[in-house]
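Course assignment 3, question 2. Fill in each field.
Student: A.L.
Task: Predict the tertiary structure for the chain below.
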Amino acid sequence: MPIFSPLRIALFSAAGLCASSVLAAENCTPNPAFTTLKPGIITVAVYNYPPFTKVGGADDISGIDTEVVREIARRNCLTVAPVIVDPSAVIQNVLSNKVDLGIGDWFRTAERAKVLGMTWPLYVDQMAYYSRDGATQVSDLAGKRVGAVSGFLYAGQVQGSLETPVVLYPNPVAMAQDLGTGRLDVAIDSYGTGVYAQSQGAYKDIRIEIAKPDPKVPVTVEPAQIALLYNKKKAELGAALDGEIKKLHAEGKIAEILKNNGLAESGADVGEPRLIK
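Answer field:
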């Protein structure tokens, strides 16, 4: 069955740490600024959100963000230990210092910048509407049952332009199930993850359209930059991560990772860091 099938999109559990997911490179020079919760291990809060993060089990993660983190870890003699959670729990795990990083297509926003550390942008992502009738703009949502994932920026921004409440879901799996059964008219999610899902056989009869620019929904006007999340108190770790990400961009590695995961290499053209307000 497809990886992103509504019946088998993800395995969500409060799994413990697993330090065996990635072997540290034999030939590496660790950056002393990479001070992690456990020596030699970088702990990552992650949820299933293909192609950005894929979860196949407690110690089986992959996807774009995962590959970036693995490359950084490899270069710094670290292993990656995943903690599998729902999207809404990623930020809390970072804030409470239970993990070193939070990953999974997280937008660089002004609100998050108040409480979280966010790295140099990895890539850009675009918001999309998933529907049967091809919704492309906010006005198309009037009178519709609209859903989004709790904790995602899309939910709050779109809610501000609608009279009826946006239905919130704990994860993309539940939202996809309701969209598939007709309990939801329109789902709001990443364009990239939708395109990937359809390439795997999911979202049959669903049209995935990039949202037309609307100033009431700022993220539709300027594509969101994606970052890794870390505890704001760990400025040294953040600076080290920024340095590694810049190197990966200069080497074309992130563009390569995007291409290998079915997305356009141009997504790596991030420009200077900015925040969505």
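Instructor remarks: The CA atoms of residues 61 and 99 lie 16 Å apart. The chain has a mean pLDDT of 88.
Grade: pending
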